[in-house]
Amino acid sequence: MNDITVTKLNKGYGGKPVLRDLSMKFEAGRVTNIMGPSGCGKTTLLNIMMGLEKADCGSVHGIPKRIAAVFQEYRLCEEFSPVSNIRMVTGKTIPRSGIERHLRELGLGDSMYKPVRELSGGMKQRVSIARAVLHNADLIFLDEAYKGLDADTLSAVIKFVLDNSEGKTIIHVTHDLQTAALMGGCVIKMESVRYDAGEIKD
Amino acid sequence: MKNKGSLYRVLAIAFALGLWQLISYLVGQRLLIVSPVEVLLRLGTIWMEPGFWRTVFFSFTRIISGFLIALITGFFLALLSGKFRFFEMMLRPFVVTIKSVPVASFIIISLIWLSARELSIFISFLMVFPVVYMNVLQGIKIVDRKLVEMAKVFDVGWNRSLLRVYMPSIKPFLISACGVGFGMSWKAGVAAEVIGIPKGSIGERLYEAKIYLNTSDLFAWTVVIVLISVVFEKLFLRLLRAGFGGLEKL
Predict the structure, then answer these.
(1) In sequence order, what are the residues at sequence separation of 6 or more whose Cβ sits closer than 8 angstroms to the Cβ of residue B24?
(2) In this structure, how many other beta carbons lie within 10 angstroms of the beta carbon of residue A2?
(3) What ipTM was assigned to the predicted interfaces of this complex?
(4) Which residues of chain B are within 8 Å of residue A84 when distances are taken between CB atoms?
(5) Environment class of residue B138 by beta-carbon count within 10 Å: exposed (0-12), middle (13-18) or buried (19+)?
(6) A31, A192, B16, B20, B165 from B23: Cα distances, Å
(7) Best to test chain B binding among A54, A70, A84, A135 (most B CBs inside 10 Å)
(8) Phi-psi label, residue B200: left if phi above 0, alpha if psi -120 to 50, beta otherwise
(9) Chain B residues with CB inside 8 Å of A65's CB?
């Protein structure tokens, strides 16, 4: 598995730049926390790295074929159960009993066969985290993945993520120092691109 | 509340039957309109006549075949159109033509190409296909784009994407299309039989009733068609909903 490099990435919407000449490197098999204020382009960067958006210019190299993500929204199939949502991405790489065990570990033992639409926000969040972690991926994107989890659940969920992601590259976007500290690894700070009367200042 | 709804339904049916009885009494000519009582009496005997079930079977198998072929082709062509815009554009003139050409024109044109025995299959197919196609395509177009992106990121196969991302969005449209399409297939299929007059069909019976001015037979056969159509529509929709329910438990 190679390191991931982002080189001179630029992206703007309606003439307003969000990313400008952004370059950074993500070490393979490690956790990298990307921190920065809201609107500084963290999610845009992830979207470009995941192939969901195209950069205006610049390049991203080293993205492995198998990736997983926890998005800011849950992005779960609401009609289906947590087990079904996870099996959708894992296929038969993990037996059903394995998925059930992991869901129990995350405190979802009573809800694993209920339709997701009947679960609370915090439960949905844990299901989307389990889906990303249990997917057979080499790179996991976590975009504000722990938002809305209470303190007790937070440390248990982070432990679950780290225990089950050994050797995987994790790119964790957050603006919360505590979750970055619990995730460990290194931190990259992003700043907003300021856009004043048509003039760009870093 | 449910009881009240049922009561209103019964009252509405009773009112319609009463009105029918009154009109038939006022007109007073059995040739023009028979009373509901007479139709009921005829219905009581018609099903015991030799060939009744064979006639029903003949029309039923053909019309339902046309419906099912339209359901399958409409569904899969809509999937292709949802995936490839070019395909949708190529198919559009055909769908618009099928939708807007009067069914009688299709029946007469098709009689040149097909035997009368197969006509109702083709005509019920033609009537149901655009309904299923357009509804399923609509369901695909309003699918949650964020879920589609999720499936792309996780590299989910097309079959699993179809079942879990697209089907929940297609489901209400497909059920509605089947409900509408079922009635249409019977209307158009029987109309094709009345014009083509294949031997041993319900259409032939209707045609004969008209020729011999046997109005009670005409009404009785019409009621038979409505009953079969409604009963099988309800059964089919129940099966479809159960199928979707099973899918959600996967």
Answers:
(1) B33, B34, B35, B36
(2) 12
(3) 0.91
(4) 164, 248-250
(5) middle
(6) 83, 80, 11, 5, 54
(7) A84
(8) left
(9) 155
Positive or negative torsion for Cα B132, B133, B139, B142: negative
How large is the angle between the packed helices B52-83 and B116-141, nearest 10 degrees? 40
- Cβ of A69 within 8 Å of Cβ of B147? The answer is no
Could you read off the pLDDT of B74-90 as tens digits, one per residue? 999 999 999 999 999 99
Which of the 8 DSSP states describes residue A141?
A: E
Burial of A56 per CB tally in 10 Å (0-12, 13-18, 19+): middle
- From the CB of residue A137, how many other CB atoms can be counted at a distance below 10 Å? 23
pTM of the model: 0.85
Look at A115 and B249 and tell me if their CB atoms are within 8 Å.
Answer: no
Mutate to test the interface with B, among A75, A117, A138 (most CBs of B within 10 A): A75
* Token digits of residue B160: 């699993």
**CB-nearest partner of A88 from B146, B160, B168:** B160
Which residues does chain B have within 8 Å of residue A66's beta carbon, measured at their own beta carbons? 155
Dihedral in degrees, nearest 10, Cα atoms A120, A122, A124, A128: 180
Tokens coding B19: 């009105």
What are A22-49's pLDDT values in tens digits?
999 999 999 999 998 888 889 999 999 9
Residue A79's contacts (CB-CB under 8 Å, 6 or more residues apart) are: A115, A116, A117, B168, B248
User: What pLDDT digit, counting tens, does each position of B96-115 carry?
Assistant: 999 999 999 999 999 999 99
How far apart (Å, rounded) are the C-alpha atoms in residues B161 and B112?
A: 43
Q: What are the pLDDT digits (tens) for B135-185?
A: 999 999 999 999 999 999 999 998 899 999 999 999 999 999 999 999 999
Q: In chain B, which residues have their Cβ closer than 8 Å to the Cβ of A137?
A: 154
Q: How far is CA B195 from CA B188, B204, B206, B213, in A?
A: 11, 9, 10, 17
Calculate the CA dihedral of residues B121, B123, B126, B129 and round it to 10 degrees: -40
> CB-CB: which of B153, B156, B250 is closest to A69?
B153
Cβ pair B168:A65 closer than 8 A: no
Contact of B155 with chain A, judged by CB distance below 8 Å, is answered with yes
For chain A, say whether B30 makes contact (Cβ under 8 Å): no
